[in-house]
Design brief:
- This protein has 282 residues and is α+β, with helices and mostly antiparallel strands.
- It has a domain at 2-73 and 172-265: NADH Oxidase, CATH 3.40.109.10.
- The protein contains 13 helices and 6 strands.
- Strands 1-4-6-5 form a 4-stranded antiparallel beta sheet, with helices on both faces. It has a two-stranded parallel ribbon with strand order 2-3.
- Helix 3 packs antiparallel against helix 12 and helix 4 (74-91) runs antiparallel to helix 11 (158-170).
- The radius of gyration is 20 Å and the shape is globular.
- Bound molecules: flavin mononucleotide (FMN).
- Flavin mononucleotide binds at residues 31-32, 34, 119, 217-221, 246, 260.
C-alpha cells in the first residue's frame, strides 16, 4: 500500500517525487498529525492546490460560504498559540469538559482497538514516564472529573497547554476557516446546509493536503467558547457577519498515515428501514 512504500523508503520526498495518491489512499491515510511538522514553508504551488481543492466543494445553491484566513507570519501564530495555551489550561480545570472527555478517552491501544472509537490519551498528552508504562493507573482519576479538575487548578494542565501552544506557534501554516453568514441560501434549513458545505470544503482541503504530504490537525481549544471566538475575531479584525468555524495547523510530514481506529460498516448502516438492532457497535 501507498504508506508502506513511503515508510520503507524512509526518505523525505520532494514534491515532484511524490507518487500519485489515489482518492481512496488519501481518504484512508489521512490522519490528524499531533506532532511537529517539518520546518519547511508550504510551497505556494501547494497552497494553490489546497485552495483549489477547497473551492470545488459543494455548497447549497453554490453559495460557497467559506473564507480562509491563511496565517503564515509569526504574529498571527503567536496570538493563536497564546490563546490556545490559556484555553487548554482552562479545559483541565473544567469538570464538565473532563467528564465528557472521559467517555471518549482510551487509555491503552488495546482498549482503543476494542472500542474502535474515541482517541488515545497518549496521542493527546505526553504522559510522564512512570504513567506511560501503565496508563490504566490513571483510570480512577479519569473517572473522577472533580479530582482531575482540582489537579487542573493546581496547574496540571500547564505542560500540555504549553506543548500544544508550541505546536501552533511553530506550524508552517495555520488556516482559520471562516463562514460568511451573509451568503445564505434560501430556505429554513439555510444554516444547516451552509455548515454541511463548510464540512465538505474542509474535507477537500484535508484530503488534498494528504496527497501533497501535508499533515493537518484541527486545533479546537481556542475556539471552544464564544468568548474566545470573539477574541480571535478581535485579533484578526473580522466583521460580525463572519463566523469562525475551525482552526487547522498544517505542515509537511515525512510519512503519511499512522494509527487510528474506526467502527465497522455494520456499526452505522441500516438497509431499507431503521432498526436499532442492526447496529452492532460495542
Ligand atoms: C471538528 C473536529 C474537531 C477536532 N478537534 C481536534 C482537536 O482540537 N485536536 C486534535 O488533536 N484533533 C482534533 N480533531 C481530530 C479528531 O480527533 C480525529 O479526526 C479523530 O480522532 C480520528 O483520528 P484521525 O483523524 O487521525 O483518523 C478534530 C476533528 C474534527 C472533525
Amino acid at each position: 500500500m501507498f504508506n508502506q512504500g513511503l515508510k520503507e523508503e524512509g526518505v523525505r520526498m520532494e514534491r515532484r517525487e511524490l507518487p500519485d495518491m489515489n482518492l481512496f489512499d488519501a481518504i484512508i491515510s489521512r490522519r490528524s498529525h499531533r506532532g511537529q511538522f517539518q520546518d519547511t514553508k508550504i510551497r505556494p504551488e501547494d497552497l494553490d492546490q489546497l485552495l483549489d481543492a477547497a473551492r470545488w466543494a459543494p455548497s447549497p445553491f453554490n453559495v460557497q460560504p467559506w473564507e480562509l484566513l491563511i496565517i503564515r507570519e509569526i504574529e498571527g501564530k503567536i496570538a493563536l498559540a497564546d490563546l490556545t495555551e490559556e484555553c487548554v489550561a482552562d479545559q483541565f480545570k473544567n469538570t464538565k469538559f473532563l467528564d465528557d472527555n472521559h467517555r471518549w478517552m482510551r487509555l491503552t491501544e488495546e482498549e482503543w482497538e476494542e472500542t474502535r472509537d474515541g482517541v488515545l490519551l497518549a496521542d493527546h498528552v505526553n504522559l510522564p514516564k512512570i504513567m506511560s508504562k501503565d496508563p490504566t493507573a490513571l483510570r480512577p482519576l479519569m473517572k473522577n472529573a472533580k479530582h482531575l479538575g482540582i489537579l487542573g487548578h493546581l496547574g496540571a494542565g500547564k505542560m500540555p497547554a504549553k506543548e500544544i501552544a508550541n505546536l501552533v506557534r511553530t506550524s508552517p501554516l495555520l488556516i482559520l476557516v471562516l463562514m460568511d453568514t451573509d451568503r445564505r441560501p434560501p430556505g429554513e434549513g439555510a444554516a444547516r446546509w451552509m455548515w454541511i458545505g463548510m464540512g465538505a470544503m474542509i474535507q477537500n482541503l484535508l484530503l488534498a493536503a494528504t496527497a501533497l504530504h501535508i499533515g493537518t490537525q484541527f486545533v479546537s481549544a481556542p475556539l471552544e467558547r464564544q468568548k474566545d471566538r470573539q477574541r480571535v475575531s478581535n485579533i484578526f479584525d473580522l466583521p460580525a457577519s463572519v463566523e469562525i468555524i475551525c482552526l487547522i495547523r498544517l505542515g509537511y510530514i515525512d510519512t503519511v498515515g499512522g494509527k487510528s481506529v474506526r467502527l465497522g460498516r455494520s456499526a452505522f448502516t441500516h438497509f431499507e428501514e431503521y432498526n436499532p438492532e442492526d447496529i452492532t457497535r460495542s
